[in-house]
Design brief:
Order of helices and strands: HEEHEEH
Strand content: 15-25%
CATH superfamily: Transcriptional coactivator/pterin dehydratase
Structural class: alpha+beta
Number of domains: 1
Helix content: 40-55%
Strand order of the largest sheet: 1-2-4-3
Largest sheet: 4 strands, antiparallel
CATH topology: Gyrase A, domain 2
Shape: globular
Length: 95
Amino acid sequence: MAEPLSDDQIVKELNSLPSWTHENDKLSKEFNFDNFRDAMAFINRIAFEAEEQVHHPEIFNVYNTVNISLSTHDAGGKVTEKDIKLANTIESLYN
């Protein structure tokens, strides 16, 4: 079982994750693209990485906007290192 991070640990990690927020026990970020196709391509790249990490985000898409939320189910829906790792991976896919 993954161990939840403390609020201080999460704040420290968010310093290297631009525009990610922590509220309601989740890390979240909105990503914007030029069009629907680019947004869907991003989602598909996330899917492959999430499968590799065996950690799956909540993904919500409307046209060119993708909203991602991360928490760890086996840690009671809290933020863990798994979420930080996947957030960093998602950032690398966006840049």
